[in-house]
Amino acid sequence: MLSKNQAKTLRALHRKKARREQQQFLVEGEKVVAELLASNWSVQALYATPTFTAQYAGLIQQSGVSITECSAAELTSVSTLVSNDAALAVVNCPAVADNNSPSADKWVLALDDINDPGNLGSLLRIADWYGIRRIVCSPQTTELYNPKVIAASKGSFLRVQVDYQPLDAFFDALPANTAVLGAYLDGESIHAFRPQQRGGILLLGSEAHGISSALAARVTQRITIPAFGAAESLNVAVAAAVLCDNLRRIES
Amino acid sequence: MLSKNQAKTLRALHRKKARREQQQFLVEGEKVVAELLASNWSVQALYATPTFTAQYAGLIQQSGVSITECSAAELTSVSTLVSNDAALAVVNCPAVADNNSPSADKWVLALDDINDPGNLGSLLRIADWYGIRRIVCSPQTTELYNPKVIAASKGSFLRVQVDYQPLDAFFDALPANTAVLGAYLDGESIHAFRPQQRGGILLLGSEAHGISSALAARVTQRITIPAFGAAESLNVAVAAAVLCDNLRRIES
């Protein structure tokens, strides 16, 4: 059963301020919590139904996490998700790796003020699908540990490193010949694009304003997804997937 | 000013039952309402702020629509969107065109029980970007006129024809040699795929269950987006965009 104190602590973690102060966040849902327990992430506490604890007994024992059994109704009352989640975990935020120079042949996503948590979560999932291990976010990009981001990432937050820093500083620290592809509506068609080297940075702008003018000078190549109809634009995560797919297709 | 009756009518259109009975739906937001007024769709009523009516006076006059001026607060109180929408329109559902045989060289999306309104709206926007003019939905697919679908489509509902019918009947009526590409996790890589003809059907399954086994026999080619990382899947709209992009890239 959930104590009043536990419920209060869990509800507090719906707020950014509490996540920041406690350096903890919530992971909700049966499948992703099971994936979390199998990972080497530091789980502070697990809240789960008897059904969940029976099904994943081995995993729970291995992880050594402290567990509180509770009903599905209790979990729902402290969860941000609407469905009957079978499990919920409090996770310690990992230390951010000091990793300012990406390997020469790897792709990194750079996000300039992505605003919507669903979009950031989708971008993690897409990066994970395309084998991109790192996302660099401008400080104004929505917070990684928002439960909506974690939910939309479908477990990919476990595999993609995300760090926040002024993008100017990030670009300053890159090797001089790094390719920086910027997603625009009026660049070179990604269907015709032939990269001169493997890997680089794919820079994506905010939903409302695109890439900020302050960062435009960092872009070595403006690229565009060719349109065949009348829609004005694509969602930023959808666009990122199409661009990543083209880059992987070209390279392989 | 909004009358009580008007407010009641508008709020009722948030519900599927009322939309079905009245054969009307809501379009919300400045930009998309302006786009709507410029189209040849049948608008039953327009509710807008004085700012909107001043800015789009020409468009409103041309459309001949009856207009009720109201405050942003009044609009928000009857809108499903949270932001300060400057305009809201009640639109008459168009008659569904009898169009069972797509032109031979065109692409059509077929949706097998897509559940999430945001996904359906995204699929409309993506179809519109890639010049796909028609989407056929199984009867269980989420309703087109849900305000969340309309919002996510970003105006593309004006340009993409959507109809609902049992997909078995749809496939029965197709010419015998029509290509039916089915999106699976274990098909041929879309990067290696070389179609034998232009156009066909791209069949996408539900978020939870993929393409139903009853429809599998209709698929002439199982296709897959190659993965380069560890994510288990992509969101269905994201996958549709990547597949459409590859098909357009191959054809052009």
- Oligomeric state as shown: homodimer
Provide the domain count of chain A: 2
Mean pLDDT rating of chain A: 93
The name of the CATH superfamily of the largest domain in chain A reads: SPOUT methyltransferase, trefoil knot domain
Q: How many H/I helices of chain A?
A: 11
Q: Which CATH architecture of the largest domain in chain A is right? A: 3-Layer(aba) Sandwich
SSE layout and pairing:
Two copies of one chain form a homodimer.
Chain A: H1 4-12, H2 16-22, E1 24-28, H3 30-38, E2 43-48, H4 50-55, H5 57-63, E3 67-69, H6 72-77, E4 87-92, E5 107-111, H7 117-129, E6 134-137, H8 147-153, E7 161-164, H9 167-172, E8 180-189, E9 200-204, H10 213-216, E10 221-224, H11 236-251
Parallel strand pairs in A: 2-3, 5-6, 5-9, 6-7, 8-9, 8-10
Antiparallel strand pairs in A: 1-4, 2-4
Helix pairs in contact in A: 7-8, 7-11
